[in-house]
Design a protein that fits this description.
By secondary structure, the chain is an alpha+beta fold. The chain is built from 13 helices and 12 strands. The strands form 2 sheets. The chain has a 6-stranded mixed β-barrel, surrounded by 4 helices. A two-stranded antiparallel sheet has the order 2-3. A hairpin with a 2-residue loop joins strand 2 and strand 3. The protein has 2 domains: 183 residues, no CATH class; 182 residues, no CATH class. Helix 3 packs across helix 8. 55% of the residues lie in helices and 19% in strands.
């Protein structure tokens, strides 16, 4: 029996009961589609995380005071970052391109009868380059504004929408932050929410010297909450972090073997952590999806057993007119593989469509895993052979005389 005749006979046998054939394929369809969707969504999620972190500055480095412990009690962060550290890093770092301090203060923002509960971020002009913010209108404050503790600010789109509800041009307007008036000299382009759901447009940037001298809520006059830096390139982020560590340890007179009183985080570390989380979730969800594929394979084997039983007389007749056991086995095995392959192709199409729809709905990069599609095709063949082999073997081992007498 040649391959073409074998396929024709198998398709004819399967189309005798279209409803049962479709229901048999349904488990394979659901399983394959689920695996493709889960893997593709996992890859889309990873790409989305990378894109989000890149929008924050792919070569950004965050330097924070370390958390201190006393008697097993977390005492919170200290005040280990100061002006000396900033000045030393600005002069000495080779792999750091931009450096900006960060001091913050909570404030009720008021314009006319409108108010908005927000916070002020005291930074230097280089903060925009580090965090990849762009000005949509106006200008950024200058080094001279830092020296004079100027009462100016640059605001995000959310602040504009909350305070200027009548469509006023915010540039040149003065808002009150607590008791301090600040003149708006610039408006940032919108960045939307980040991966953590935080609104990146709800922001007011002020010269850090202004926060440190004019706002009573900032107790320290010399210390910073954080330092932000950017490496000369993404590839040199780790080298820049190492260099900054060496400079700060020297500045803080930390001896060999002593713990740092600061922490340094690079975007690569954040990306690695987020990627590990999404990878674990993807594996878990894919494993759950694979269970439905296993159930579909068991259903296929069950139906093939039923088919063999129903066609016992046909098997006996084929053997009686000269069909070999190998021919009978190949016939039922081919029916199983064809069912699995058709179900697999339909599952792949459905899975790809669902993955694209899900990525579009979540506003993630549209990614379809090519490896998942290739593996799914191989799994379809393997499922058809593995779960069809036992029923086909049962059919091939039938005694022709007993089969012909079967009622």
């Amino acid at each position: 029996m040649n391959l073409l005749n074998l396929i024709k006979i198998s398709i004819t046998a399967l189309t005798r009961n279209k409803g049962r054939s479709f229901l048999t394929m349904l488990g394979i369809i659901i399983g394959i589609a689920s695996v493709i969707v889960m893997v593709s969504i996992g890859q889309s999620s990873t790409q989305n995380v990378r894109s989000e972190l890149s929008s924050m500055g792919s070569n950004m480095i965050m330097i924070m005071p370390a958390r201190s412990m006393r008697g097993g009690v977390d005492m919170g962060t200290g005040h280990s970052l100061n002006r000396k550290d900033l000045e030393t890093l600005e002069k000495s770092t080779k792999y750091g391109q931009h450096i900006s301090p960060m001091v913050s203060s909570g404030a009720q923002l008021v314009f006319g009868s409108n108010n908005h509960s927000g916070s002020l971020s005291g930074v230097s002009a280089s903060y925009l380059d580090i965090r990849k913010y762009k000005l949509g209108a106006g200008i950024m404050f200058t080094d001279n504004d830092l020296k004079t503790n100027a009462k100016v600010c640059v605001v995000g789109k959310t602040v504009v929408e909350k305070l200027f509800t009548n469509g006023e041009d915010p540039i040149g307007q003065t808002i009150r932050c607590g008791r301090v008036p600040l003149k708006i000299i610039g408006v940032l382009e919108s960045k939307g929410q980040n991966q953590m759901g935080q609104d990146q447009d709800d922001i007011v940037l002020v010269p850090y010297t202004t926060i440190m001298t004019r706002f009573a809520g900032n107790k320290s006059r010399d210390n910073f909450n954080m330092l932000f830096a950017s490496a000369t390139s993404e590839e040199e982020s780790e080298m820049a972090a190492t260099e900054i560590t060496y400079i700060l340890r020297s500045n803080h007179d930390i001896k060999a073997g002593q713990d740092d009183d600061f922490e340094i985080r690079t975007q690569e570390e954040l990306l690695s952590t987020m990627s590990e989380i999404t990878q674990v979730l993807t594996i878990l969800l894919t494993a759950i999806a694979a269970i439905s594929l296993l159930v579909g394979g068991i259903g296929l084997m069950n139906i093939m057993y039923v088919t063999v039983t129903e066609r016992t007389k046909e098997i006996g007749l084929r053997m009686a007119i000269g069909a070999k056991r190998k021919d009978v086995m190949l016939q039922f095995l081919s029916e199983s593989v064809i069912l699995s392959l058709i179900g697999g192709f339909i599952g792949i199409i459905i899975g790809v469509c669902l993955a694209l729809v899900a990525a579009s709905a979540l506003n993630w990069p549209k990614t379809v895993s090519q490896s998942a599609i290739g593996i799914s095709f191989l799994v379809c063949v393997a499922t058809g052979v593995f779960f069809g082999w036992y029923p086909a073997r049962k059919a091939a081992n039938m005694d022709p005389i007993t089969a012909l007498r079967y009622e």
